[in-house]
Amino acid sequence: MRSGKRIDGTGDGKRMKTCPTETQKRKEVEITTDSKFPLYAFFRKYSKDIKLSYIPEQSIKKANYGSLPRNVISKEKICEVLEHNNINLVRYRAFFYDEEEGAFLCLNDYDWIPISYSKPPEILGVISKEVNKAIYVTLENNRLPSGNYHQLKNEVNRCVSERNGWFGIGIYRGKVEANHGTLWRSSYQFGAAFVFSIGARYKSKIEKRCDTYNTYTKIPFLQFKDSTQFLESVPYNAPWVAVEMGGEPLETFKHPSRCVYILGSEDHGLSKDILARCRFRVTLPCVKDSNFNVAAAGSILMYDRHVKQTIGINKSVTVKAQD
Asked: What's CA 126's distance to the chain center, in Å?
């Protein structure tokens, strides 16, 4: 986003394109300087340009966030700052980053927004300077494009619309259709909202060859052609969890109430781009070789989630503002 130009297409400024080119350099643009508490706003897919504005320190209040006190700011104040900087909140939907959830949550669903003390994975390499605390807001155009993108996003939203806690699971650039079919069936057994593939390297629509339970009638299998289409379609309020070596041991891992698990391909694992966007990385325990079959790894992961939720290890948190 560039200073001095409206992004709602009105006023004297030129209409700003919502899709910056890939060659555009990353930059930070300071909008106002009435305080030293920063608010960053950017488009989720195109996070190379960031608007930086400031919120007065007196707008911060204390809150009980779970069992810990947290600093929060009212939704109205954040909306005021965004609109003051020419962000049309009718045209754009706003989401704020919640570091406890490790994901972006819809701004309109909350009255008080907690301050983050860590950067979202999406912009770790974009904001160069050290930031101790900030509010991070990402924007999405309410005018969704037509075509396959629109269909996939609607399908994902339908899968999770009536669930408070949910998860999706899939394989990145998988090459063996039998693994996708096996994971599909296991996902249904453990209550997944949807199963997916990203850039699959086999012929499409043949996963059910290894499914003798007619799982395709019970849980959707979504096929994304690449990581960009996947990013455009998955919900904001779910952190990505990489299932890869070098992460937190599964024994101690606390599963988010809402999340998307991503398993690496049979031969190359996960790409650096996918790993950079994952809020968590978890590693499965083993006695000998840690190279699990990808479908087996997914089944072990989902069993662990099921057991921990059944005995109450994972607990949700709520926010209540104090006067």
From this structure: 17
Quote the pTM value: 0.64
Helix or strand or coil: residue 237?
coil
Answer whether 305's CB lies under 8 Å from 299's CB: no
Q: State CA 220 to chain mean position distance.
A: 20
- The first and second tokens of residue 181, run together, are 């079919």
Give the whole-angstrom CA distance, residue 11 versus residue 145. Answer: 25
- At residue 224, what are phi and psi to the nearest 5 degrees? -105, 135
| 217 neighbors 184 (Cβ within 8 angstroms) | no
Q: For residues 210 and 181, is the Cβ–Cβ distance under 8 A?
A: yes
Give the CA dihedral 280, 249, 299, 182, nearest 10 degrees.
Answer: 70
Helix (H, G, I), strand (E, B) or coil at 296: helix
CB atoms within 10 A of CB 113: 24
Strand runs labelled E in the chain: 27-30, 37-43, 49-55, 61-65, 68-74, 92-98, 103-106, 112-114, 135-141, 166-172, 194-198, 221-224, 240-249, 258-263, 280-283, 319-321
What tens digit of pLDDT does each residue of 22-75 get? 333 333 333 333 446 788 888 765 555 677 788 887 888 887 765 677 888 889
Contact 124, 257 (CB under 8 A): no
Please answer whether residues 95 and 138 qualify as being in contact, where contact means their C-beta atoms are separated by less than 8 angstroms. yes
